[in-house]
Amino acid sequence: MNSFLSSSVFSYLIKFTNIFFIIFFSPMAFTDSSETLDKSKSSVITVNHVVGAITKNSPFYQELTLNLDKEVAGLQAKKGAFDTQLKSKYDSIDKSSVFDGFQVSLEQPLGFAGTQLFGTYRTTNGSLPLYWDKDGTNAGGELAMGLSVKPLRGLFIDKRRASLKKQSLALEGFRHEFSQSTLELIYKGLGLYYYWALAHQKLNAFQQLLDVALNRDRWLRVRVKKGDRARIEVDENQRVILNRQAEVAKQKTKAQLAFRQLNLFLGNPYTSAESSYLPVRLKDDKFPFPMKLRGLRAWIKSASQQRQDLKALSLKIEEKKVEYRLQSQNRLPDLSLSGAMAQDRGASRGEFDGNEVRIQGTLSFPLWMREARGKTRMAKADVEMAKVKRRYGQQKIETQLKNSWDTLALLKKQLSLKRREVELSEKLEKAEQKRFRYGGSSLININIRETDFIRSQIKYIEIRAQSHIESIKFYVTAGQLPPSLQISK
Predict the structure, then answer these.
(1) What does the pLDDT look like over 235-263, one tens digit per residue?
(2) Is 488 part of any domain?
(3) Are residues 392 and 358 in the same domain?
(4) Which of 1, 141, 198, 216 has its CB 3.0 to 4.6 Å from that of 123, i.e. a possible disulfide?
(5) Shared-domain flag, residues 116 and 183
(6) Residue 419 structural domain
(7) ∠ CA 456-260-250, rounded to 5°
C-alpha cells in the first residue's frame, strides 16, 4: 500500500514538473523590447520625436535651411542692381592747380526700358581754353538732371530686370524643393529609426530564447541529480546556451550601432547611454496602407499636384524662359538715348551762363549677329531641357508610386502568410514539448522547434518594419506624410 502511494505521488510530481517546465521554460510570444527592460530607467523615442529632432537638430535640415537663406540673400543682392548710387570724382591737372575739377552725382536705375535717372553737381576752377567748352563751369558750379533709356533692347526686359526675375523664380522654386527635401529627410530618418527598432526587437527575441535555455539548464541539472535525465542533455543544452549568447551579443552590438547611426543623423540630441533609450513596438496598423485610402490612379493624380519638386521644375522652365526672352531681345539694335538739363551758377567764367539742354544717342548694331543668335539658341535649348526634366520627373514619380504600390501589396500578403507561419510554429513547438514530456522527443528537437518559432517571429517583424518604411516611402513619393505624422512648427 505504501509503495503504491509512493509511486502515485511520484508520478504526479513528474507530471507537475513537466507541466511547469512547459509553461515556464517554453519561448514566450514575441513582445515589445520595452517589456524586458526597466521602463522606469529608459526613455521611449517615438516616430514623432524623430520627426521633431530632424526639423530642429539634424545637420542635413540645417544645411537645407542655410541654403534657403542663401537664396533669400541672393534675391536681396539682385535687388541691389536698383539701388541709388552716389558717385564722386576729383581731377587735378598739375601741382599749380591750373585745372582742378570736382563732381558728385546720384544715379537711380528704374525698372522700365533700362531707364536711369541721374543728378549731377560739378565745378572746375581752371582757365585753360582747352577745357572751357568741355569741363568748364562758372564759379558756383553746374547743376544737371536727366535720364537715359534703352528703347529697343531694354524696352520689355533688360539684364538687371532679367537677373532679378530669375532669382525671384529660383527662390520660389527652392522653397518648393525645401519642402520636398524635408519629407525625404524624414523618410531617411524614420528608416534609420525602424532599423534600430528592428535590431532592438531582435535582441529582445534572442534574449528571451537565451533565458529559456538558461532556465532549462537549471532544470536539467536538478533532473540529472535525481537520475531522470542523462548528463549528455546538459552538455547539449550548454552548447545551445553558448550559441544563443553569441547571438545576443551580436544583436546587442547591432542595436547599439543602429542607435548611434540614428542619433548622428538627428544631430546627436540623445546624449545618455544607448541602453537608456527604447523604440516603440512595431504595430501592424501604425501607418495605413495607401490602398486603404484611395486607388493608385488617384494617388498619381494627387502626387502631380502635391509634389513640391515638380512645382520647382515648372518654375525652372519659367526661369529659363526669362533668359530666352532676354537673349532674343539682344538681337535688336542697341539704341541708347539720354537727355539732361544743366544750369551754370555763380560768377561768369566766359561763355557758361544760362541753361543747357544736352541730348545724346548711340546706336550699335552687329551686322552678323552670330553672338546674339548663338546665345538665343542656347537659351532656347535650356528651356526645352527644363521641359524634358519636368516630364521625366513626372514619369519617374508615377513609376516610383507604381513600384511602391506593388511592393506594399506584396508585403501585405507576406505579413498575412508569415503571421500564419508564426501560429503554426507555435503549435509545433508546443506539440514538441508535449512529446518531450512523455519521452517521445529529444532536447535537440525541442531546441529546433524553439529556434524555428523565434526565427519565424523575427522574420515577421522584419517584414512588418519593411512595410512601415515602404509605407512612408509611398507617402513621401506622393508628396506628403502619413496621416499620423506631423512636422512640428
Answers:
(1) 888 998 999 999 999 999 999 999 999 99
(2) no
(3) no
(4) 141
(5) no
(6) 17-75+161-319+382-477
(7) 40
d(CA 270, CA 118) in angstroms, rounded, equals: 60
343 and 213 share one domain: no
Residue 386, C-beta contacts closer than 8 angstroms, at least 6 positions apart: 313, 316, 317, 319, 320
Give me 469's grid cell: 518604411
**Calpha distance 89→92 (Å, rounded):** 10
Both 414 and 359 in one domain: the answer is: no
Crossing angle between the packed helical segments 159-225 and 59-79, to the nearest 10 degrees: 180
Using a 10 angstrom Cβ sphere, with 0-12 exposed, 13-18 middle and 19 or more buried, the burial of residue 439 is exposed
Judge if 312 and 205 occupy the same domain: yes
For 52, residues 6+ apart whose C-beta sits below 8 A from its C-beta are: 488
Residues 6+ apart with CB under 8 A from 420: none
- Distance, in Å, from the CA atom of 123 to the CA atom of 308, rounded to the nearest integer, reads 59
Q: Which residues lie closer than 8 Å to 367 by C-beta, 6 or more apart? A: none
Which DSSP letter does residue 80 get?
G
170 in a structural domain? yes
State whether 296 and 392 are in the same domain.
yes
Contacts of residue 116, Cβ cutoff 8 Å, sequence gap at least 6: 107, 108, 109, 110, 147, 148, 149
Q: And the C-alpha cell for 222? A: 536538478
Query: Is 118 within a domain?
Result: yes
CB neighbour list of residue 132: distance below 8 Å, 6 or more residues apart? 349, 350, 351, 352
- Residue 301: beta bridge partners? none
pLDDT in tens, 308-332: 999 999 999 999 999 999 998 888 8
Quick one: how many helices (H) and strands (E) in the chain? 10, 8
What type of residue sits at position 86? Answer: L
The percent of residues in the chain predicted with pLDDT above 90, rounded, is 39
**pLDDT tens track for 193-242:** 999 999 998 998 899 889 988 988 888 888 888 887 778 888 888 998 99
Question: For 87, phi and psi rounded to 5 degrees?
Answer: -125, 145
How far the first Cα of the chain sits from its last, in Å, is 83
Q: What's the total number of domains in the chain?
A: 2
C-alpha cell at 435: 512529446
Burial class (CB in 10 A: 0-12, 13-18, 19+), 1: exposed
C-alpha closest to that of 174 among 304, 64, 78, 80: 64
Cα 197 from Cα 148, distance rounded (Å): 69
Cα(162)–Cα(357) distance, integer angstroms = 32
Claim to verify: residue 95 and residue 213 sit in the same structural domain:
no
Pair (299, 219) in one structural domain: yes
Give the integer Cα–Cα distance in Å for 242 and 411: 34
